[in-house]
């Protein structure tokens, strides 16, 4: 089976991290975001992944592909747009790569969503319903910033609801039409490609509404957690959900425990943690990080190579690669430090600061 991951967005909402790294390669749970998806695709039997990119292909992306093609024994290729083609145009551009002689459906994924990826169940669901296109949906409190799906019938039970057909699809609705939203994971028959022209096209605004009107669009309710991690606050919420999922499903493997560790904490084995620290809940510490003595960390990510000096406190924030937080400094309140940023001793950064302030020039 084949899959395409839409990785062409500019990642502006995740600046300043995305000044140094393309969004799909920003670490989440100590590995690049898209690696979570590529591994899930492999587990579901996908052998070939196409990465749909639209900007200049950075060296770092090429290196990632080379490394993981080998490690995962999968074919990973690029399909590069000369101008942004939106969320459907890239499928038309990669048409030849997606069509399989056996006529099998293929997966399409947004690159910035995190969940349990029940892709095998999705394949079954797609076949059982004879769908032309299946999308994963999930419930959220504020549906207005997503694509909203209205089911054909208000089913009586959750079980029946899972089998409902999509009546209509409304991208970022201005008025409330429902709370079930597009989770950014699709399984499409090759015939969907015949509906897409090679121009800038939105799959959400132009393609899904049409398929729904022909009663060929189905929605599978995603079990478990889901989050679009394309902006800092949601990234940290997604991290909390992900760590909680690991606690329930693979606790010993990735989470650490011991003196001074509270709740769910993931730390790379090469990270060094000093004495009398208080770490957690909901913290991820990357490879080669140094957490000096007396440090307090909670609800935060400290990425590869960063150093948090004595008695500093980092909460609800992201510390980018190779950055330093000085002794007795405080970084809080959804602050995002980019790569190689240095917070002086005793400095307080307590609100979402403008990217240019924390990005080293
Ligand atoms: N190749 C390519 N070219 N990819 C693109 C382009 C483009 O021109 N524009 C966007 N993308 C990619 C992004 O990198 C991302 O992976 C995906 O398409 C969706 O774009 P976002 O910018 O993240 O969209 P969104 O979060 O506002 O909304 C989308 O995701 C929601 C779920 O997270 C929509 O699909 C919504 O319907 C959905 O609910
Ligand atoms: Mg998004």
Which terms summarize this structure?
EC 2.7.7.13; GTP-binding; GTP binding; 361 residues; 11 helices; binds guanosine-5'-diphosphate-alpha-D-mannose; elongated; single chain; binds magnesium ion; NTP_transferase_dom; five-stranded parallel beta sheet; alpha/beta; 27% strand; mannose-1-phosphate guanylyltransferase; seven-stranded mixed beta sheet
Radius of gyration computed on alpha carbons: 21 Å
User: Quaternary status of these chains?
Assistant: single chain
Number of strands: 28
Mean pLDDT: 90
State the strand order across the main sheet: 5-4-1-6-11-8-12
Hetero compounds: guanosine-5'-diphosphate-alpha-D-mannose, magnesium ion
Percent helix range? 10-25%
Q: What's the main sheet like? A: 7 strands, mixed
Label the overall shape.
elongated
Protein name: mannose-1-phosphate guanylyltransferase
GO molecular function: GTP binding; mannose-1-phosphate guanylyltransferase (GTP) activity
EC number: 2.7.7.13
Pfam families: GMPPB_C, NTP_transferase
Brief rundown of the structure:
The chain has 361 residues and is α/β, with parallel strands linked by helices.
Overview of this protein structure:
With 361 residues, the protein is an alpha/beta fold. 25% of the residues lie in helices and 27% in strands. The chain contains eleven helices and 28 strands. Strands 5-4-1-6-11-8-12 form a seven-stranded mixed β-sheet. Strands 14-17-20-23-26 form a five-stranded parallel β-sheet, with helices on one face. A hairpin with a 2-residue loop joins strand 2 and strand 3. The mean pLDDT is 90. It binds guanosine-5'-diphosphate-alpha-D-mannose and magnesium ion. Its EC number is 2.7.7.13. GO terms for molecular function: GTP binding; mannose-1-phosphate guanylyltransferase (GTP) activity.
């Amino acid at each position: 089976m084949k899959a395409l991951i839409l990785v062409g967005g500019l990642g502006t909402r995740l600046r300043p991290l995305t000044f140094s790294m393309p969004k799909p390669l920003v670490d989440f749970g100590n590995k690049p975001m898209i690696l979570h998806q590529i591994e899930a695709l492999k587990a579901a039997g996908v052998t070939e992944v196409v990465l749909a990119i639209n900007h200049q292909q950075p060296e770092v992306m090429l290196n990632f592909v080379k490394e993981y093609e080998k490690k995962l024994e999968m074919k990973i290729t690029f399909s590069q747009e000369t101008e942004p083609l939106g969320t459907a145009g890239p499928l038309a551009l990669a048409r030849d790569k997606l069509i399989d002689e056996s006529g099998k459906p293929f997966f399409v994924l947004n690159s910035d969503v995190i969940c349990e990826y029940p892709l095998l169940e999705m394949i079954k669901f797609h076949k059982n319903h004879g769908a032309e296109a299946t999308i994963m949906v999930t419930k959220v409190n504020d549906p207005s910033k997503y694509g909203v799906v209205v089911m054909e019938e208000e089913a009586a039970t959750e079980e029946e609801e899972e089998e409902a057909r999509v009546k209509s699809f409304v991208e970022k609705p201005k008025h409330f039409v429902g709370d079930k939203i597009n989770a950014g994971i699709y399984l499409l028959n090759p015939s969907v490609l015949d509906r897409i022209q090679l121009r800038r096209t939105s799959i959400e605004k132009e393609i899904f509404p049409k398929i729904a009107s022909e009663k060929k669009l189905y929605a599978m309710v995603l079990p478990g957690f889901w989050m679009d991690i394309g902006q800092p606050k949601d990234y940290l919420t997604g991290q909390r959900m992900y760590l909680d999922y690991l606690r329930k499903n693979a606790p010993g493997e990735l989470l650490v425990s011991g003196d001074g560790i509270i709740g769910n904490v993931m730390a790379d084995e090469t990270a060094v943690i000093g004495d009398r620290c208080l770490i957690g809940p909901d913290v991820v510490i990357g490879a080669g990080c140094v957490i000096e003595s007396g440090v307090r960390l909670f609800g935060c990510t400290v990425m590869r190579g960063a150093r948090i000096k004595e008695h500093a406190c980092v909460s609800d924030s992201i510390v980018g690669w190779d950055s330093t937080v000085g002794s007795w400094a405080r970084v809080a309140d959804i602050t995002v430090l980019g790569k190689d940023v240095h917070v002086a001793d005793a400095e307080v950064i307590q609100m979402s600061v403008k990217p240019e302030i924390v990005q080293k020039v």
